[in-house]
Write a structure and sequence with these properties.
Helix content is 50%, strand content 12%. Helix 10 crosses helix 12, helix 11 packs antiparallel against helix 12 and helix 13 packs across helix 15. The protein is globular, with a radius of gyration of 25 Å. It has 15 helices and ten strands. The strands form two sheets. Strands 4-3-2-5-7-6-8 form a seven-stranded mixed beta sheet, sandwiched between helices. With 413 residues, the chain is an alpha/beta fold.
Length: 413
């Protein structure tokens, strides 16, 4: 079974000729002088090419009319993110599973498209970022600073180190683009989609790419310093705050050639129990998810679970689904009470909490670290216990469900 039947929005990717399943996308806004050359060189790889004209002043369709490409035009300039989402919609309607995007200004080299095809074939579940080589290019200082600044915020918001968050040369699974939610669909989109994808459990791979920057007086940039910097500030503020909130993110997982979203943990667990997965392996995955979910891995639970499940070759969907049992506030509160009791021989009471009203910021910070320590101590007691109980329940129930279904198949009347 690829994914539980009840998991929403499945999109199966089979091992096939990737040339039939990958769409090259060139968003363009007023780069009329270079888009023809970029599109022509992209066609050399026998891939379908889509040019998304994001409200350009010039006639982009006419500029590429001699090429075998599809052109979609926005009536007005809606932003690069919206152009990519328009391409994703077109790709889904035309049975494409992945997009490779590159800029229309000639900055990227279409000759490196095969590098992305190899990454897609090896890691169809991942987004692939092209890491620009600035050592041998005439890259402006603003691009160098912007990349490092963006990389810093992604590290803060996800715990994952990326090397070029602002590269426009990248590959996306269409399913991932269509099932994330975004604040912005303009310049900030390319930063936001990576953060939200990492939160959703989608891996991000990287491949080195060459980059060409013309002389300063020949460059055409659509970056508006005030407006786009304000949007980036708002976005990073929101994403940073959201990264510390305990509410879980929608999960997108890839199992046995299929994408699926995790939004209803109990239904997912039920469907997995009815699958042909071995009950013992499902039980281990469930126990792992609960144990790691109990630990105070703030903003990193999903990444830790995916990594551990992958290393142990356990079902990632079951592990993530069972970890939702440990969602705040109940399990962390119990862990803190256990840790507090082990430290001081008594339980934390409302009377202790009432003292917070007169506490200084320094004291509040100290108390927060104290509670975090107690959460960790308590999780070492409660985590294994909950993992053992969860594993046993999952094993017994999956064994029962599978035997019941087997008997029903043998005796259909």
């Amino acid at each position: 079974m690829s994914c539980p039947k009840d998991i929403e929005n499945q999109n199966t990717i089979e091992k096939m000729d990737w040339q039939e399943k990958v769409l090259v996308v060139i968003p363009v806004y007023n780069h009329i002088e270079t888009v023809h050359d970029v599109a022509k060189r992209s066609l050399e790889h026998r891939l379908d090419v889509l040019v998304v004209d994001d409200g350009s002043r010039d006639n982009v369709a006419l500029a590429v009319s001699d090429l075998d490409v599809t052109v979609i035009r926005h009536d007005s300039n809606k932003g690069k993110g919206r152009a990519i989402l328009t391409a994703a919609q077109y790709a889904a309607e035309n049975n494409k599973t992945h997009l490779i995007t590159l800029d229309a200004d000639g900055q990227h080299y279409p000759e490196q498209i095969p590098d992305f095809l190899r990454e897609i074939a090896d890691h169809p579940e991942s987004i692939t970022l092209g890491v620009r080589d600035f050592t041998s290019s005439n890259a402006p200082l603003s691009s160098r600073f912007g990349r490092e600044f963006g990389n810093f915020w992604v590290r803060i918001q996800t715990g994952v180190k990326v090397r070029d968050i602002q590269s426009g040369f990248r590959a996306y699974p269409v399913f991932v683009l269509q099932h994330l939610k975004y604040m912005f669909d303009t310049y900030a989109f390319e930063d936001e989609v990576i953060v939200r994808a990492l939160w959703a459990g989608v891996p991000v791979k990287e491949t080195p790419v060459k980059v060409y920057y013309p002389q300063a007086d020949e460059r055409i940039s659509h970056f508006q310093k005030f407006r786009d910097n304000v949007k980036l500030t708002i976005l990073n503020t929101y994403l940073t705050i959201r990264s510390f909130l305990p509410w879980p993110h929608l999960q997108i997982q890839y199992e046995n050639g299929a994408f699926c979203t995790i939004s209803h943990p109990l239904k997912i667990i039920k469907e997995l129990m009815a699958s042909r997965h071995r009950p013992s392996r499902l039980a281990l995955a469930g126990a792992l998810g609960v144990f790691l979910g109990t630990l105070p891995l703030i903003a990193c639970h999903t990444l830790a679970i995916i990594y551990a499940a992958s290393m142990l070759r356990l079902n990632k969907i079951m592990a993530i689904a069972t970890s939702q049992i440990c969602m705040p506030p109940i399990v962390p509160a119990v862990c803190i009470e256990i840790g507090y009791f082990l430290r001081f021989g008594s339980f934390l009471t409302f009377k202790n909490a009432s003292s917070l009203t007169d506490a200084s910021f320094k004291e509040l910070g100290h108390m927060g670290l104290e509670r975090l320590l107690e959460w960790f101590i308590g999780s070492l007691i409660l985590g294994p216990l909950l993992a053992l109980i969860t594993g046993a329940v999952v094993f017994v129930l999956s064994l029962y469900v599978q035997k019941t279904l087997l008997n029903a198949q043998r005796n259909p009347g």
